[in-house]
Amino acid sequence: MSVITGLGVIAPNGLGLKEFWTATLSGRSGITELDRFDTSDYPARLAGLVRDLDSAKHLPGRLLPQTDVSTRLALIAAQWALEDAEVDTAELADYDMSVVTANASGGFEFAHREFKKLWAQGPEHISVYESFAWFYAVNTGQISIRHGMRGPGSALVAEQAGGLYALGQAARTIRNDVPLVVCGGLDSAFDPWGWLSHLSSGQVSLDPDPATAYRPFDVGASGYIPGEGGAICIVESPESARARGVRAYGELAGYAATFDPHPDRGGPPGLRRAAELALVDAGIDVGDVDVVFADGAGLPKLDRAEALTLRELFGTRGVPVTVPKALTGRLLSGGGMLDVVTALMSIQEGVIPPTSGTAVVPDDYGIDLVTGEARPAAVRNALVLARGRWGFNAAVVVRGVQNGR
């Protein structure tokens, strides 16, 4: 068993847990026009952007020249999560603290800036930090170094499912007798090369209206909006949390991951199996689930497949379903983590945030999608789903605890 005692959030619609949660309940979006370079010749120009975050105010000056924007986001979110959990790293043994992060794009902006120097000026002008700043594991490494955490660390790459994969690995680390794990996922890839990488999927919405561009499960769904940011959480054993005298937001009760079969083999997608295994891991059945935080790809084919999964899983019960990431865009490895944060706050506050932008759900989807306004509800168990490109699936069950904040 693991509990979550601290949350650090950096999202397009809010910096910090309080601001993000307020924005999510009120429907305030962080999707806007991408303005970090000239996008006038691109077919899509909307993104979920983190604004008004001055890294120099939150990080030592020595770290700024050696880190990509995604690593700066991870370092700041980790600091906020540690502060939220009231962790004094000086009071804990270095090998009793671990770091597990997910990252889908690496240090895109940093690497491409250095590539430009290489092509235009020559190799002698490349930063020495390029050797690691681009790497997928750099967030785990930088957090570990900054806070003196020498327990077993991990870095995972699973696109949109990556954040949930990190939570699963954190739970395994706790079971291996490490008391505390800093865990999460954050991504940012909004330089010109990164933007082309997003567009190459063919799944980005070309709708120029921020209010309708990303509308999961809607009859007019036409793609998703990329975003940046994510969340870091502090995962602990219950014994560690009690010993430190801190309360928990909730319990990380169940986790599972699966892969989709190769398209040529004709097998069913793996999302349902991931959800079923996560429920088994949590020791609950479908009747105990109070809300589903869906992946919500915003593409008719994928939305229909997920709706079918939910119908097969829950039958006619009509469990509430929501996709709050419609306000932020899909954040790659940060998306699942942000949904877990939202699920924990739903448990704490007794309310389910709505799916922004979605107006009409096809009748044959057969899901109870929460739209319009937040819905009051007693939430004890929340199921969080995530799918990454190339067949990644993950499911997490978070549960309320009696001493929850």
TrEMBL record:
<dbReference type="InterPro" id="IPR000794">
    <property type="entry name" value="Beta-ketoacyl_synthase"/>
</dbReference>
<dbReference type="InterPro" id="IPR014031">
    <property type="entry name" value="Ketoacyl_synth_C"/>
</dbReference>
<protein>
    <submittedName>
        <fullName>Ketosynthase chain-length factor</fullName>
    </submittedName>
</protein>
<feature type="domain" description="Ketosynthase family 3 (KS3)">
    <location>
        <begin position="1"/>
        <end position="400"/>
    </location>
</feature>
<comment type="similarity">
    <text>Belongs to the thiolase-like superfamily. Beta-ketoacyl-ACP synthases family.</text>
</comment>
<keyword id="KW-0012">Acyltransferase</keyword>
<dbReference type="Pfam" id="PF02801">
    <property type="entry name" value="Ketoacyl-synt_C"/>
</dbReference>
<dbReference type="InterPro" id="IPR014030">
    <property type="entry name" value="Ketoacyl_synth_N"/>
</dbReference>
<dbReference type="Pfam" id="PF00109">
    <property type="entry name" value="ketoacyl-synt"/>
</dbReference>
<keyword id="KW-0808">Transferase</keyword>
<dbReference type="InterPro" id="IPR020841">
    <property type="entry name" value="PKS_Beta-ketoAc_synthase_dom"/>
</dbReference>
<dbReference type="InterPro" id="IPR016039">
    <property type="entry name" value="Thiolase-like"/>
</dbReference>
